[in-house]
Design goal:
Length: about 550
């Protein structure tokens, strides 16, 4: 039986280099393209050619579109001294005008066989022997390298199992937990901003759906492309003056962790400020990041500022399920414990659990970063990531050698963050009987599982503030503390967290909010009076529900 060599789907020998040939292939492939996608034929980084259905993208002068290993459209610079390098901007499905972008483009009448035959004819026996000998050396070296690597890996696995300690330690030694930025959305966002008539884009998505990382990638990639200045601001910190050639990301709308219910006037004021910046300063672009629940809740109130929100990009929906699935499988493969309950955890459990408020990328990253057997077993049983992480934090207080970690979790939850330049709050430590020290972060590696250093100033980028690695992890810590002692929480926790996460008993509350009884609401109202914050928060239901005169 003759051997059949099958090409990967979409791989071709050559791309069409004329308008007529391109349109003929596009017509033949049109049935396989959906929505805004059109036929493309592009090279990858190795020079292979691929036919794919992709959204049209603006490619700037001096660049060629390429296809990534994940099947997305990207671009790279070409040699501007070459006359075939694009000398003006163009749409990605017009790349046929620039043959340089295809590299070596082998057409049907110039098969690999004919090229090989020609090369053999022109080669002397000595050259052929030299080529064969060189190839044998390369093959031998590759085999030797493979054997060495395999031996090292086996040794590494043996040492790992020999030194295996607890179920919590070392489960994910080779997985780096990062934000799952949506590559396709990043490309779409960048190319929207590149349009002259687009001055602002709005990235929305559910909690934990890679909204922050996706918007950050858009900001950085656009800034690098245009050689502009990139800035990031909490919405309450937006400056009055912005320099030309600046792309600015604004985040944290309506609250850091949740809706504080008293920020709408501030939001409107900031929106007006941003519109003024766009009107008064040329060459300024905005990337607005907002959770989809807040965006839809306040859509009518934001309507007067439509200029800021008209170019909406949503991360919600099922189109990224495959990307999330592959990320989840990577987590499972990386766990070396054959009896770890993560082997019984399924993607469907994560996808259809009782925690649909939380995006899949975040749930997967939590399972990776806090890969504890008890935690995973609890998730399989309850399928509620908030409940499971809350119980996980609560259990740390009595767990051997973890009391210091628990106290730091509690301290940073109460303060909101911890600046390395500030002294510890001695009053707070006395109230909660904490025994922590500032140098614990140097001595205790377990703290790195829960916190990360963040810039105190986005302008300078100086890493000097410890905060939870994700706002949702903060929320879980808050739930744990609130269950332990809600009175002490409302009397000593930072005000922002209370107004964003606490609602009066009997009122509607969301998945991440907690309910406070009448005594709790009373204590909070008294605290607002002491701090002269009644005018700011007198419309908050937690203040309005009590009857203290």
């Amino acid at each position: 039986m003759p051997m059949c060599t099958c090409k990967p789907e979409g791989k071709v020998n050559a791309c069409p280099e004329t308008k007529e040939a391109w349109e003929a292939r596009a017509e033949a492939k049109r049935a396989g393209c959906h929505y805004e996608e059109v036929y493309h034929c592009l090279s990858d980084k190795d020079g292979n050619k691929w036919e794919k259905c992709l959204q049209k993208t603006l490619i700037l002068q001096g660049n060629c579109p390429i296809i990534t290993s994940d099947g997305y459209l990207d671009w790279r610079a070409c040699d501007s001294s070459d006359s075939s390098c694009p000398n003006h901007s163009y749409v990605s499905d017009e790349v046929y005008k620039f043959s340089l972008c295809f590299g070596h483009n082998f057409h049907a009448n110039q098969t690999s066989g004919s090229i090989r035959d020609s090369a053999v004819e022109d080669s002397s026996p000595g050259v052929i022997i030299g080529v064969v000998f060189t190839n044998l050396l390369i093959i031998g070296a590759a085999i030797l390298a493979f054997l060495i690597i395999r031996r090292r890996l086996r040794k590494k696995r043996f040492v790992y199992h020999k030194n295996e300690k607890t179920a919590q330690e070392g489960l994910l030694s080779d997985v780096k937990v990062v934000g799952v930025a949506r590559k396709k959305t990043v490309s779409k966002g960048v190319h929207l901003l590149l349009k002259e008539n687009v001055h602002s884009i709005c990235i929305i998505g559910q909690y934990g759906n890679s909204v922050f990382s996706t918007s950050s990638f858009i900001l950085k990639k656009f800034a690098n492309w245009k050689n502009w200045k990139a800035q990031q601001f909490l919405f309450t910190d937006v400056p009055d003056c912005v320099e030309e050639k600046t792309v600015m990301k604004v985040y944290g709308w309506f609250g850091t962790w949740n809706d504080d219910l008293c920020s709408l006037d501030t939001v409107k004021m900031v929106c007006q400020k941003l519109e003024n910046v766009l009107d008064d300063v040329s060459d300024v672009k905005l990337v607005i990041e907002m959770s989809s629940d807040k965006y839809h809740k306040y859509r009518m109130e934001l309507e007067p500022f439509r200029k800021l929100f008209m170019n909406e990009i949503s991360l919600d929906g099922c189109y990224a399920d495959e990307e999330n699935l592959q990320h989840f499988k990577k987590i499972q493969r990386s766990c070396k414990h054959k009896k770890c309950p993560c082997k019984r955890l399924t993607f469907d459990m994560l996808h259809h659990g009782n925690d649909r408020y939380v995006g899949m990328p975040l749930k997967i990253n939590i399972i990776a970063k806090h890969h504890d057997r008890t935690l995973i077993r609890n998730y399989i049983e309850n399928q509620d990531i908030l409940r499971v992480m809350t119980e996980h934090f609560t259990a740390l207080e009595t767990k051997e050698n973890m009391k210091e970690v628990y106290e730091w979790i509690s301290y940073i939850c109460l303060k909101g963050q911890f600046s390395t330049s500030e002294a510890l709050d001695q009053d707070l430590m006395a109230t909660w009987d904490f025994g922590i020290q500032k140098d614990d972060f140097v001595k205790n590696d377990n703290l790195k599982d829960f916190f990360q250093l963040k810039p105190s100033n986005m302008e300078t980028g100086d890493l000097s503030v410890y905060a939870f690695w994700h706002p949702f992890i903060y929320i879980c810590a808050f739930h744990s503390l609130f269950q332990k002692d809600e009175i002490r929480v409302v009397e000593s926790c930072n005000i922002d967290a209370i107004v964003e996460l606490v609602r009066p008993e009997g009122s509607n509350k969301s998945y991440i909010e907690v309910s406070a009884n009448a005594e709790c609401a009373n204590r909070f109202s008294e605290r607002l009076r002491r701090l002269n914050l009644v005018d700011k928060y007198n419309a908050h239901p937690l203040f309005q529900c009590n009857h203290i005169s």
